[in-house]
Amino acid sequence: MKKIRINQNITLILLVFILSFTFTPLHAFGEKIEDPYGERQYLFEKMESLFGIPWYYLAAIDQYERSIAKVRKDIPVKEGLIAIYIPPSKWTGFLNPNPNDVEPKSIQFFNGMGLDGNGDGLADPKNDLDVLFTMTQYLSSYGFKEEDIRIALWEYYKREKTVEQISQFAKIYQKFDTIFLTKQSFPISKGLQYSYRSTWGDARGWGGRRMHEGTDIFASYGTPVKSVCYGYVEVMGWNIYGGWRVGIRGLDNIYYYYAHLAGFEKSMRIGDIVEPGQIIGYVGSSGYGKPGTQGKFPPHLHFGMYIDNGRTEWAFDPYPYLRKWERQRK
Ligand SMILES: [Zn+2]
Asked: How close is the Cα of 295 to the center of ligand 1, in Å?
């Protein structure tokens, strides 16, 4: 820890100078945000060019934090460009008697991580540059390779799943070389036969009493199933209830679950990055038994959505989303 601090002090003197010039035309000084994706990406890339942390990791942490803030009551909603929320115990230091401390010297004294990134003499957890600079410095104190960043993330979040999710987001951003990846689409192509209705919470017969956690889209065998979002293929394989199923995590930290498939798209593997509209598998009736079991019910795609809030994951009704994507397609 001591060694890191010394490096930071040297860097800081340089930074006050560099940052105050490089960020001048941006939102950093309180102007209206007109292109949040572009401005955010600019900040991440600037941090990479100054400190060597790949921009897509900063983007991934920011996006992860944005996704959990939406579904967590204990995380305040942030108004600026950057969604990363560093709690007072980390920012000001665990033993700091003042949880609102913005004085860099006393924060440093109490081993808080908060730093001044915009050169105004304050380490303000509400300031985008201070927060992003602080996170960048924290990561760089562990190193610049993927393994180093994963260790830093584990030390920060203490949750393996979170490390996984952020690493997945980073891979998605790296592949498409942009953070503007908001497009979503309906899983079945326009013009093909299918039908579905809202079945959230219906009772299920097979395998004991279970609630139906998803929407069934009925279609004929072999109808192509497409990814609804940009995402990372997290799970592929057999599950006794879902049969051949694929689980894809989107940048909203939602796990999209596609079940009862007849088969997968041949070239697809766990760890692949997909985009909306990309074929991932084919409608079938697999499931409700040992691997290969099929035909116990009419062919359909079971589509589920699960949100992770950084602590736990739960299912919610995908029906309204499917309707929205279907309307947008017309
Ligand atoms: Zn179903």
From this structure: 14
